Amino acid sequence: MSFLGKSFLTSEALTDKDLDDLFSRTKLFKQEFKAKGRIHHLMPSLLGQERVVAMVFSEPSTRTRMSFQMAANRLNYRTVSLDNITVSSISKGETFEDTLRNVAAMQPDCMVVRYGTDTSADKVVGDLPFPVINGGIGASEHPTQALLDAYTILENRGKIRGERVLIVGDVLHSRVANSNLILLSKLGAEVAYCAPREFVPIDPRWQSAKHFSDLSEGLKWSTVVMGLRIQKERHGPYQGIGLTIAEYREKYRIGTDQLNMLPPDGISLHPGPVIRGVEFSDHVLADSKCKVLDQVTNGVYVRAALISLIFGVEVNT
Ligand code: CP
Predict the structure, then answer these.
(1) What pTM was computed for the model?
(2) Do residues 207 and 105 share a domain?
């Protein structure tokens, strides 16, 4: 795709060169921030360059929204944010699509969007005259989460090709799982899943993925395990999970015993928010194999790299 001036809505579009460009810039930004506490000095062309990134989120977010804001601020760009629809004019009856059109009419330089599955909003987003970044759309995709997950695997495991990634939990409703399947497969990892019957993915892209009905078997196979939250907000009114939360914990929660089934240098990931005690135990969250907060840190540099590549900013190395 090459990022320059383009929207970034799906992991499908990424080429090997895009990923090389993005991950090398991510690494540089992270190292430079560690050394000097800033990154914008790497990009002299940022001086005097006014850019505003609009954030339009109709679903809750902590990490994605703030991480894009941090990334834009580290690049010396400004952000404006609509993140609480109860205090927006949506609460007065304006549609989300018209909200997108009105924020677009304010002429931001780029927009990051999050919303539930909505084909009318997809159409508006597709027609906007500036780049739009998918910050999580319905159950379809969350491509920047997959980028930061892949970067975290690369950083901790030294490679992605040949890694065996087990995704555990509500795979059916997970945009994170979909984007990771697409991206990690492209990068040469093998992606498998372990889920209760009700959360087995039906998207044809998952058909060739390995399925473990037993978590222990899956963990013994994997080098990376990724937990997922049960996404009740995407379940239909009559859809249960077929088992109680206590039974879910018993079969799918990753505790110390389960973590120890990974290789000694294996890692555990989770996109967040983590529901403690359901997907991961407190001990797992505190274990050095658990890279959940590294993922969050990496998200800032991955997103700063993405925004700067979309805006065509040259970097001095
Ligand atoms: N990972 C992620 O999308 O988290 P938030 O919902 O907090 O943005």
Answers:
(1) 0.97
(2) no
